[in-house]
Amino acid sequence: MATKTKAKEEENVATDANESALQELFIDELKDIYWAEQHLSKALAKMAKNATSDELRQALETHMQETEGQIERLKQVFGSIEEKASAKKCEAMEGLIKEGEEIMKDTEKGSITRDVGIISAAQKAEHYEIASYGTLKTLATTLGYTEAAELLNQTLEEEKKTDGLLTQLAEGSINPSAKNEAK
């Protein structure tokens, strides 16, 4: 009987350690996306300033405001799990932002081709965010953080909506206009 009890205790310790490691990963990923959102907000402002199309500029400005709300929502997520909101440098977002800056530098100011590049850069960032928020929502659910999962899902849906809007702009007017511009 003592052997079964000891085995059960060891299993509980292992489970607690695994959950603790998973929780640490969750918090680390939250810090990562918190940094990413703060820096993306600044990058979106630059993209909007460099956009030629009024439609694209408006979409970027709207998403920039939405991103500010997402930053506040991340603070709520941290609070819901009783953690202090803090950021950890996100190497992926830093790279995506640098790539976006290069695209703007390498395309002609005032051209629709620059808008195509801005959409490309913005969608790469959106796809990174969609992957991050999907993972975070799943981890929150696994860890039993219901409130955090709901908050993260709100942001995930906003990111998907923005990605869809950027695709509509590209397919509807921006890319065809850039094709004609090149002639």
Q: Can you give a write-up of this model?
A:
The structure is a single chain. By secondary structure, the protein is an all-alpha fold. The protein has a single domain (about 1-180), classed as Ferritin. The protein has 5 helices and no strands. It has helices at about 1-50, 55-80, 90-105, 110-140, 145-180. The chain is elongated, with a radius of gyration of 21 Å. The mean pLDDT is about 90. It holds the Pfam family DUF892. Keywords: Coiled coil. It comes from Mucilaginibacter straminoryzae.
Summarize the structure.
87% of the residues lie in helices and 0% in strands.
Strand-residue proportion: under 5%
Helix fraction? Answer: over 70%
Q: Gap between N and C termini, in Å?
A: 84 Å
Structural class assignment? mainly alpha
* Element string (H = helix, E = strand): HHHHH
Keywords: Coiled coil
InterPro entries: DUF892_YciF-like, Ferritin-like, Ferritin-like_SF, YciF
Protein name: Ferritin-like domain-containing protein
Name some characteristics of this structure.
elongated; mainly alpha; single chain; 0% strand; 183 residues; Ferritin
Task: Please write out the topology.
Elements: H1 2-50, H2 54-80, H3 91-106, H4 112-142, H5 146-181
Helix pairs in contact: 1-2, 1-3, 1-4, 2-5, 3-4, 4-5
Pfam families: DUF892
Coiled coil: 57-84
Region (Disordered): 163-183
